[in-house]
Amino acid sequence: MKGFKLIDKETLKETDIASEKNEDLETNVKVKITKCLITLNDVLRYSGEIDCENVVLGSFGVGIVSESFNNLFGIEKGNRVYIEPYNNCNECYNCKNGETSKCSNVLTAGEDYNGFLSDFVSVNASKVFLLPDPVSEKDALFIGQIANAISIIDKLGVQKGDYVAIIGNDNLAVITALLLIFYQSVPILIGTDDEMINIAKESGVYYTLNSEDNWQKEVSVITGGRMAKNVVYIADSDIPATKAFAVASYNASVAFTGNSTKASAISFALAVKKQLEIHCINGSFGNTATSINILANKAIDLSKLKVDTVSYEAVPKTFKALNDKIKNEQPIHETIVELF
Ligand SMILES: [Zn+2]
To answer: How many domains does the chain have?
Structure first.
């Protein structure tokens, strides 16, 4: 097994990782990785902005089972699978009391342990999910983002017919809007990246506002003066949070979320004035089976999402290029690495 490991700031090295694996063959499944997703988090780990271990990068991965001891849980050689990229810590108070789903120190692939930028991975069978035929490998790489969007909608308690303003410039913003439409509420997608706003429109989001619109005024018009009872603020967007507070109604619920855990400075003055309820959501952990079911039922159309595709060999120069873009304050999007 070989993979691209982060050995130092801005330095990737293709490394043999077979020898360092603590494999428990009785409970592990070996998966040949076919596609891996590079996300903003990966690039921020590469640049040193997010602390991480010296591990193989790659936030999300799909592949084909190549070995399964005793066909664990019915997982057989040749199955197409998605690998859930999280582990509970088994050390915190909640984990030790059997509530692993409330782990306060969730471990993440590509940050705390090896991610998916490698030809094979050996993972615990409980982390492996079968992909039904209708689910494409490309869509499956967004299962973590769909799971996060489900958590946002659950946490806000969005009801049928509710207006939900989404402030964001990335694929997560579009996925959240599409899921809200599926749940019969009314998303208003707001962003400064006009290309992403067009992607949202083409994907079926009716209310969109771009960099040229007066957001507060337009949201007032759309909602008949009520403003948005629910607001999703995607912190990666680099749009000031005050903009999210401005489109919220009095006492509205605001969800802070994002794909990355990068640092940001926020003024809460307007949130206090409007007595907003703030929720912080990092909900990719869990909801995996529900997300796969949503894709299997073709409930949302991800075909227009903005993604680039590169080969495994191009990984080092891809990271360098993405990092340069961030340094120049240009937006980046997810990149799919084709391994086979
Ligand atoms: Zn824990």
So the answer is: 2
- The answer to whether the CB of 326 falls within 8 A of the CB of 47 is yes
Please check the confidence at residue 21 and state whether its pLDDT lies above 60. no
pLDDT tens digits for range 267-289 = 899 999 999 999 998 877 779 99
Answer whether 246's CB lies under 8 Å from 227's CB. no
CA of 285 from ligand 1 middle (Å) equals 12
Distance 271 CA to ligand 1 centre (A): 31
Q: Quick one: pLDDT at residue 17?
A: 87
Compute how many other C-beta atoms are within 10 angstroms of the C-beta atom of residue 298. Answer: 11
Residue 225 lies in a domain: yes
Ligand 1 centre to CA of 280 (Å) is 18
Domain span at residue 232 reads 148-280
> Which residues have a Cβ under 8 Å from the Cβ of 288 and sit 6 or more positions away?
82, 84, 129, 143, 147
Average pLDDT, the chain: 93
Last residue of one domain, picked from the residues 265, 280, 295:
280
Least Cα distance to 200 among 175, 223, 218 occurs for: 175
In a domain, 107, yes or no: yes
Around ion ligand 1, residues with a beta carbon closer than 5 Å are 88-89, 92, 95, 103
**Residue 304 has what pLDDT?**
97
CA pseudo-torsion sign 135, 141, 146, 147: positive
For the record, the structure tokens of 258 come out as 């994002």
Q: CATH number of the domain that 138 lies in?
A: 3.90.180.10
Of 280, 296, 329, the domain-final residue: 280
Contact partners, residue 221, CB within 8 Å, separation at least 6:
none
Note whether 134 and 25 are same-domain residues.
Answer: yes
Instruction: Compute, in angstroms, the gap from residue 315 CA to the centroid of ligand 1.
Output: 32
For residue 85, the CA-to-ligand 1 centroid distance in Å is 15
